[in-house]
């Protein structure tokens, strides 16, 4: 079983949490036409495609899902990539400065559900890259899992 298959097999709780969160947030988010959206820690793209994409405005310009795992990104592009609308890229959110430089001040909304608690250098990831890539008055929606 490769990493993508393992991810899918064990990701149900995270998908339920993301669904619950986006159902609550969707009505509160001030969406705008032609927005650009980033999903950090997209894994296999299931949450991006089935949970996030349906609540985005129909006029959404671009949705990019990023994850550090090559096999999950390959799976996401193969199964959910939509030309010119939904794409997935392998990106290390702590150290891949090229991606973030290319998209500086691009994203109107950044989502990260059940991902950043796995990142050891959270402060670096948040301060140096993600928050710099939000368009003025953009939104960053973050969901971390509590561990007991």
Automatic annotation (TrEMBL):
Domain Methyltransferase: 32-128
Classification via Pfam families: Methyltransf_31
CDD domains tied to this protein: AdoMet_MTases
PANTHER family per the UniProt record, alphabetical: TRANS-ACONITATE 2-METHYLTRANSFERASE, TRANS-ACONITATE 2-METHYLTRANSFERASE-RELATED
Stated name of the protein: Methyltransferase domain-containing protein
Lineage: Eukaryota, Metazoa, Ecdysozoa, Arthropoda, Hexapoda
């Amino acid at each position: 079983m490769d990493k993508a298959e393992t991810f899918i097999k064990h990701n149900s709780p995270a998908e339920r949490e993301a669904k619950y969160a986006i159902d609550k947030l969707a009505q509160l988010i001030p969406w705008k036409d032609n927005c650009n959206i980033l999903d950090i820690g997209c894994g296999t793209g299931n949450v991006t495609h089935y949970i996030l994409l349906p609540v985005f405005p129909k006029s959404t310009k671009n949705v990019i899902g990023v994850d550090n795992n090559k096999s999950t990104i390959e799976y996401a592009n193969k199964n959910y990539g939509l030309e010119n609308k939904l794409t997935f890229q392998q990106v290390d959110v702590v150290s891949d400065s090229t991606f973030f430089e290319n998209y500086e001040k691009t994203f109107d909304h950044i989502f990260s559900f059940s991902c950043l608690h796995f990142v050891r250098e959270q402060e670096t990831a948040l301060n140096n890259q993600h928050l710099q890539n939000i368009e003025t008055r953009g939104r960053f929606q973050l969901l971390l899992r509590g561990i007991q």
